[in-house]
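Bench notes, afternoon.
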Amino acid sequence: MADFKSTTGPTVFIDGEAGTTGLEIRERLAALPQIAVRSIAHDKRKDAAARRELMAAVDLVVLCLPDDAAKDAVALAANLGKDAPRFVDASTAHRVSEGWVYGFAELDPAQASAIKSARRVANPGCYPTGAIALLRPLVENGLVPADHPISVNAVSGYSGGGKAMIESYEVAKTGPAFELYGLGLAHKHVPELMAFAKLTRRPIFVPSVGNFRQGMLVSIPLHTDTLPGRPKVGDFEGALVTHYAGCHLVKVIRRTDEPKSGGRIEAEAMNGTDRLELRVFGNDEAGHIVLVARLDNLGKGASGAAVQNIRLMLGL
């Protein structure tokens, strides 16, 4: 159990609670009576001294800020000594930084324990959560070589694009039905994806957004004749099932579980949950495989993962 500053239970400050992720985290924490959420006055949100004072008074700070602001927030608390809080950073700023633990509890058998004891945890990105969940067990099992050419294709609801994108769909009504983006092929999620999927070759990552508020599909096509031993659908399923055995938020859906799916999958079925579903679609005769992850980009892809990490760090 953590050494809490409060004698009545752990306290949390969400720095940036007015944004989409911050609001979702606050709503989830409201369902946990053990945790007291401390807020800063609206007119003090950018007051460094006031924020630092609140950081010193709580057990844990959740950063729901742009990357540069998240780095500034950590620096603000750097000299608080024994009063320094623990951090969960929901931005991209520290996901591959030294001294930060990656907040995907199902990454490997030791990850939840690492999160539990960490002072600083970097919450995963929504897209990398799906891609890493699919690829990490396959790379570790030798089914997919670390230097294999990988293409990751993904679609998210528009809530993953932040305030401006949400307003373009919900207020201005100018958002397109569907669009690809990140076509400069230098998306900020790629370093994180490589590091925690254990890839040594840079993957091609093509994100997209659709005209629905939330929900996400991440898909990875593979030619099995380019892989060692030409593995079959059952080999991929078996590796994923073994890796996630006992995980209550990550579930592998086998072909036998959904024999009448018709080879279709839609993006919104996990909305409102913190679950992540993994599937292997394939045609062994043709040697074609498509790995698919489905999640709520605001759930396991953001706020749900943050609260999972908060619970681990606070011993709840």
